[in-house]
Amino acid sequence: MAECGASGSGSSGDSLDKSITLPPDEIFRNLENAKRFAIDIGGSLTKLAYYSTVQHKVAKVRSFDHSGKDTEQDHEPPYEISVQEEVTARLHFVKFENTYIEACLDFIKDHLVNTETKVIQATGGGAYKFKDLIEEKLQLKVDKEDVMTCLIKGCNFVLKNIPHEAFVYQKDSDPEFRFQTNHPNIFPYLLVNIGSGVSIVKVETEDRFEWIGGSSIGGGTFWGLGALLTKTKKFDELLHLASRGQHTNVDMLVQDIYGGAHETLGLSGNLIASSFGKSATADQEFSKEDMAKSLLHMISNDIGQLACLYARLHCLDRVYFGGFFIRGHPVTMRTITYSINFFSKGEVQALFLRHEGYLGAIGAFLKGAEQDNPNQYSWGENYAGSSGLMSSSPELCPTQRARSGTFDLLEMDRLERPLVNLPLLLDPSSYVPDTVDLTDDALARKYWLTCFEEALDGVVKRAVASQPGSVDAAERAEKFRQKYWNKLQTLRHQPFAYGTLTVRSLLDTREHCLNEFNFPDPYSKVKQKDNGVALKCFQRVVSALDALDWEERQLALVKGLLAGNVFDWGAKAVSDVLESDPQFGFEEAKKKLQERPWLVDSYGKWLQRLKGPPHKCALIFADNSGVDVILGVFPFVRELLSRGTEVILACNSGPALNDVTYSESLIVAERIAAMDPVIHSALREERLLLVQTGSSSPCLDLSRLDKGLAVLVREHGADLVVIEGMGRAVHTNYHAALCCESLKLAVIKNSWLAERLGGQLFSVIFKYEVPAE
Amino acid sequence: MGGWLGRQRWLLRMGAGWLAAPMERHGRAAATSASSAREPVPGGPDGRRREPLRRRANSASAPAVGASAEGVRRDRPGSYSGATSASRQRVESLKKKRPLFPWFGLDIGGTLVKLVYFEPKDITAEEEEEEVESLKSIRKYLTSNVAYGSTGIRDVHLELKDLTLCGRKGNLHFIRFPTHDMPAFIQMGRDKNFSSLHTVFCATGGGAYKFEQDFLTIGDLQLCKLDELDCLIKGILYIDSVGFNGRSQCYYFENPADCEKCQKLPFDLKNPYPLLLVNIGSGVSILAVYSKDNYKRVTGTSLGGGTFFGLCCLLTGCTTFEEALEMASRGDSTKVDKLVRDIYGGDYERFGLPGWAVASSFGNMMSKEKREAVSKEDLARATLITITNNIGSIARMCALNENINQVVFVGNFLRINTIAMRLLAYALDYWSKGQLKALFSEHEGYFGAVGALLELLKIP
């Protein structure tokens, strides 16, 4: 049933003073531009949602107007960079205890500039109670939305837009949260909402869902009956009692009835035959802990059993659990999971959601924002602005909670264009971008966290250096350092905080934090310089290649791709060399490369393939700016074009490290076209197409790519995918299975990783794969 | 015989009311719910439920095969452990001919022991002459009393008269006493030298295993252990076939929600199959019965009669089942439960939920003020409604999943419990939109014991 009484999310409550102790501008961010509000008021927690626009600086690149100028002057950069303000859309969600509601509403009122907003969507049991207060404080009309409709809208939204939203709970494993990769089709599923009662809803499509059943034995029963039995008033305290109790003192077990015989009969003696069966006596006192535990088992088992019966009747195997009974409580997630496994014999999976607490607020917001069509966009979780899972869990993080646990934040950025699967994935439902799961691999986790910590100084320095004219760059960079450092510390203790921890998520978090403090593209100048230098060498490199015979040329092209890949500011070993020796050249890079046979070497197979018919169309994911894209990728592209293969060159939509962006790639291609007739005609005839990936990550998630890219790939019948660079081909996609030929190449520029893979620094990965017939 | 069941320990604390905790349970059958999540039962999830499609081919000759809910082969019911030569002889004689008197069937549950006793009324003078003293004294004692010691009760109103069993005519008596008085019962057997009668005790229920050794070492009595689900089904089918002294055994409620119009009406179970059988003892077992020999255990729940009574004891301080029910009859559960209308002001139309439906059992008890405003009677009533609704809900889901539309509720939870029966009848009808029918049976909790007796007599 509806959430009409929610958990006190912790020890705080009546006794806490009602003032906001944190700087509110860190909580209700971007309020000035907030234009649409929704609120979900539960029994003890309020979730506020608003839509806002964020103004931030972006580095734009633009070709010079070359008319009347000598373009070949050595000192001149290849294009100009200008910093512009850009407005992007962001969804803010803030969760706080009801005790703060008045203070929060006051704060919002004082900072709300936008006067177009007239209405606030409200849901949750408390929406009735606080209606007048909201209308009075905010001068907004309260529009009440149906609780369950909001929950389901919210659930669909997070399942579609947040990778690693759902997880299974596995007790005794470390960590206990196992995140699920997003299934491309989230429907149908069962949502079991355990509020004061239980609602079981079957969700079939975006707009179609059906209440198929429920139970009155839910969170309210645990709380109400628990309060009667133990004289303990608070929900969290009851759970705490339960976690310390022994239910076998209260419950009648099979072994109590069968005696010792259960063993010889093969019966599980620990099974509960009758909940509270032993309490039918007046001669015994039962401890609060034991009764609370027995009650918890009774209710969890009952809900699990009913959920299984409904799942079976409707032939569903995915069951998401939500509601205040579940919300962030390992104790209840554990008992519910146990019950589901027990009653379904493993056929049904109990799934939980990272942002379960926000579903109602998200749904209410979406209801109110229907005219903006939020569902036609893709959204991305902003790691910089969001609190992690369990940020307010007293069980897991008592110290953190004391400081900031009263407020929990979720921010989602609206992405410019919708993201979809790469149509060439062999099995989108089992595709996992990341190669190593750092939540699983404690050794790797420790290494990478330390690695990112150690690299932080350099990143801060570079950020400051990238904005020489800014007066507050140093101050902002320091804030960035603090923020990212804190994220790393959180992840050390709670690797599951933002879903599965991976090298990709660590890199993405860093990018988000940099953006947060207006360092949109710290490498823009470096990239500009590198591109300029490399462009000057292009013709020499191409002539040298053309002079080689066919077979030599193929190897040289591949070596060029690999050598270009050594130029990567993202990898510490390389940035060290480059900082100390800026003249480190292309030829020197080639010398650094491992001699064949490489660490992974299927070059022979690739060469053989090249002797056959040309590919129809190659999709190439480029990596770094400068030498990599200009002297490595473009000559390779040129060769493919000469063979009669069309090429789609995909670059990042937004900046990440020194990776070449889509807009940079356009300029680079234009400059090369001016020098090279092959590229020139291919661009004109659209045999060479430049596209954006939709991503701003140094890694690559093939399940979240720009829709335009996917359309082109289909239209042109791409039959070869080339992925280069450590971030895209090793940290991610190393194991990605495609339904066409693929080439994954990278130079391992991290000695720890190289060692792990059984090689040395600058080992070469050349992985050419042909799908099984 | 006067001493048996005479333990006073319970009386001291519980008052004279504690003559019988009326919940029986079928130990293994009712065992349902997951135990400690901290220490999971190894293999628990696969172990518990009978394979859904596995049905019993023959429950009489080889009832143990596939009978185990745990998928582990159990002792053959009807097998004898520690076979001494004397017991073997008894087995042999059992096979050859009608067993010697006395004829008992015993069902030892988690809370209650159910005993059925066949009193032959066609005893010839010659027979009476030969009847050993101990046998005679048992007969006289059982049939001339309605209460035994402080806790044994004979349900006189259930007595089946002029029954013919194995060619003998007589009356069938129904007796119950708390399982915790089992040691006294065994001691009585020893004192009265039961073993000299060369009788066989056919027993079912978890207690048949738990007390087997005590029967042997203290009473020198050999128990013949029987599968409780087999016994339950055998007993139900048999009792239904003989009727209730000319009346119908099976009944249902018409207009169960209406105090004025509610009527208990006989039901002719002429087409018994398929049938969903819900046995509510301390816990609950749910069986799908397709024919006399073909059934499966569908599921069970640990929220049963034991939960109702246990919670009532904790919440109200009551000491007997009768007292708990009496309090419940005077209480108002809507003070304790949060109803749909308490949340939505009326019906929740979006989901077609009526305002009177319970949204959250004990939901009002989250509030301190409301906790202080409820009476013990209200709490007892709410406990009864909660447990009963939940059983109805699970039974309904099982009926849907198994595609069965008649549901028979049995077990001692229903004894003198019209509130629960009417609620089950109403809930099943309402939520299934008239598709499901709730049926009840007069001998509620005694079917297992009857089944055990039938095994003794080898009545198929």
UniProtKB/TrEMBL annotation, chain A:
<keyword id="KW-0547">Nucleotide-binding</keyword>
<keyword id="KW-0944">Nitration</keyword>
<keyword id="KW-0479">Metal-binding</keyword>
<dbReference type="Pfam" id="PF03630">
    <property type="entry name" value="Fumble"/>
</dbReference>
<keyword id="KW-0173">Coenzyme A biosynthesis</keyword>
<keyword id="KW-0597">Phosphoprotein</keyword>
<dbReference type="GO" id="GO:0005634">
    <property type="term" value="C:nucleus"/>
</dbReference>
<dbReference type="GO" id="GO:0046872">
    <property type="term" value="F:metal ion binding"/>
</dbReference>
<comment type="function">
    <text>Phosphatase which shows a preference for 4'-phosphopantetheine and its oxidatively damaged forms (sulfonate or S-sulfonate), providing strong indirect evidence that the phosphatase activity pre-empts damage in the coenzyme A (CoA) pathway. Hydrolyzing excess 4'-phosphopantetheine could constitute a directed overflow mechanism to prevent its oxidation to the S-sulfonate, sulfonate, or other forms. Hydrolyzing 4'-phosphopantetheine sulfonate or S-sulfonate would forestall their conversion to inactive forms of CoA and acyl carrier protein.</text>
</comment>
<dbReference type="GO" id="GO:0015937">
    <property type="term" value="P:coenzyme A biosynthetic process"/>
</dbReference>
<dbReference type="GO" id="GO:0004594">
    <property type="term" value="F:pantothenate kinase activity"/>
</dbReference>
<dbReference type="GO" id="GO:0005829">
    <property type="term" value="C:cytosol"/>
</dbReference>
<dbReference type="InterPro" id="IPR015844">
    <property type="entry name" value="PanK_long"/>
</dbReference>
<protein>
    <recommendedName>
        <fullName>4'-phosphopantetheine phosphatase</fullName>
        <ecNumber>3.1.3.-</ecNumber>
    </recommendedName>
</protein>
<dbReference type="InterPro" id="IPR035073">
    <property type="entry name" value="At2g17340_3_helix_bundle"/>
</dbReference>
<dbReference type="InterPro" id="IPR004567">
    <property type="entry name" value="Type_II_PanK"/>
</dbReference>
<keyword id="KW-0533">Nickel</keyword>
<dbReference type="InterPro" id="IPR036075">
    <property type="entry name" value="ARMT-1-like_metal-bd_sf"/>
</dbReference>
<comment type="subunit">
    <text>Homodimer. Interacts with PKM.</text>
</comment>
<dbReference type="Pfam" id="PF01937">
    <property type="entry name" value="ARMT1-like_dom"/>
</dbReference>
<feature type="domain" description="Damage-control phosphatase ARMT1-like metal-binding">
    <location>
        <begin position="454"/>
        <end position="760"/>
    </location>
</feature>
<dbReference type="InterPro" id="IPR043129">
    <property type="entry name" value="ATPase_NBD"/>
</dbReference>
<dbReference type="InterPro" id="IPR002791">
    <property type="entry name" value="ARMT1-like_metal-bd"/>
</dbReference>
<keyword id="KW-0378">Hydrolase</keyword>
<comment type="similarity">
    <text>Belongs to the type II pantothenate kinase family.</text>
</comment>
<keyword id="KW-0067">ATP-binding</keyword>
<dbReference type="GO" id="GO:0005524">
    <property type="term" value="F:ATP binding"/>
</dbReference>
<comment type="similarity">
    <text>In the N-terminal section; belongs to the type II pantothenate kinase family.</text>
</comment>
<keyword id="KW-0963">Cytoplasm</keyword>
<keyword id="KW-0007">Acetylation</keyword>
<dbReference type="GO" id="GO:0016787">
    <property type="term" value="F:hydrolase activity"/>
</dbReference>
<keyword id="KW-0464">Manganese</keyword>
